[in-house]
Amino acid sequence: METHRTGAALAALLLTAVSGCAGGVQNEQDTVTLTFADLTSQDNTLGQAAQAMFEAIDEEYAGTIEVEYFWSGSMAGGTEILNSLSSGMVDSASIPTAYYPKDLPVASWAEGLTGLAPTANILPPFVVNPAMHAAFDSEAVTTEYAEHSAVPVTVATTDSYALVCKDPIDSLEEARGKLVRVASTQHGAEVEELGMSPVSLAHGETYEALQRGTIDCTITSISGAEDLGLYEIAKHLIPIGFSPTVLPVLFNTDTLESLPEDLQEIIRTTGRQAYFDTYAHASFDEVHELLEDGPLARDADTEILIPTDMRDALAEFRTQRAKDLAEAAPEGVDDAEALVTGFAETAGADAPLFEEASSISADLPEDAEEFRARYATMAERTGELDGYLEEVAP
């Protein structure tokens, strides 16, 4: 449900005299009014997860959670949304760490932990995400966000990013010199390793840049490309395992601490679980639909390419960077080795569980046919995947 409000009073609680009980919570029935901002649309995987999160919180809490959603950057653009949250203009938001390497050096470093885990295209939301929750619960990360009046309550790790290009690229030789839109220093380094040139552009400018030929390709999630309509003008998808992006859901500190303690606990537990489950399923479902009936279907005109020399060079580069991660930790990370080891152990333990549940290898696919087959296989095993998600719940 939605309501309207403005200013720092967005977190005001309107108490009623009616007592109630829902989901086992004993509490006076409260109406809690909140705002939430996202750079993506309400139909995007992140948007679906956010709505499911607030619906689950509302269902368990003995009252009504009313949320006004600001989609597609309508509250603030990619480089302004953190300030909107810190200042109290919005109560909660999904904010990419990649957009704030200077403001959030620790969180940006933590995003690099994804290189320690298998990153075949389907895996990150299912395998990397639980391990990333532990990293974002660490003191080093939460202390940094506290400096921006923000509290991480859950996190999404995207599917492995891919190239979406106007022209086909079949090899490292053909990739050399191509201009590629990137949104993070990590993706910039990966692009340069493949001989391409990174270009910094705002998220919303990607479509026009591809259309005009200002850039040749962009790095994006497979579902994110559909969200921006990129397959209309860029007909070549190259899913070779670029690093996933990490998008924590943050609450303004004052907003969260002003809420009743039982509601805060529900946000951190029930809300987190609902977001994780919905995002994992939605990430898979959207790509599966794109492959079955959308612009990536066999009879559509978008071509899927997996140049093996590019795929292998990228995997080798990411592996090497991951090995150096602890030494590259920024100031403020006192337990870098422990964070790196903990992340690797968690993701390493979850990967075989996922493989058993899905029958899908943690290795990158060899070709377009194997890429397609993996999504078809998972579509037949949703029951097993539900059991897996419950077992690895963050």
Describe the structure.
Helix content is 45%, strand content 19%. It is an alpha/beta fold. The two termini are 27 Å apart. Mean pLDDT is 89; it is low at 1-27.
Concise account of the structure shown:
It holds the Pfam family DctP. The chain has 394 residues and is of the alpha/beta class.
Strand and helix map with partners:
Blueprint: E1 13-22, E2 25-37, H1 45-60, E3 63-70, H2 81-86, E4 92-94, H3 105-111, H4 123-136, H5 139-146, E5 150-157, E6 161-165, H6 172-175, E7 179-182, H7 185-193, E8 197-200, H8 206-212, E9 217-220, H9 222-227, E10 236-242, E11 246-252, H10 253-258, H11 261-293, E12 303-304, H12 308-323, H13 336-358, H14 368-379, H15 382-391
Parallel strand pairs: 2-3, 2-4, 7-8, 7-9, 10-12
Antiparallel strand pairs: 1-2, 4-11, 5-11, 6-9, 6-10
The ordered H/E elements are EEHEHEHHHEEHEHEHEHEEHHEHHHH
| Class from secondary-structure proportions | alpha/beta
Low-pLDDT stretches: 1-27
Strand content: 15-25%
Helix content: 40-55%
Mean pLDDT: 89
Total of helices = 15
- Count the strands? 12
How big is the Rg?
21 Å
CA-based shape? globular
Distance between the termini: 27 Å
Main pleated-sheet profile: 6 strands, mixed
Organism: Brevibacterium salitolerans
Keywords: Signal
Protein name: TRAP-type C4-dicarboxylate transport system, substrate-binding protein
Signal peptide: 1-22
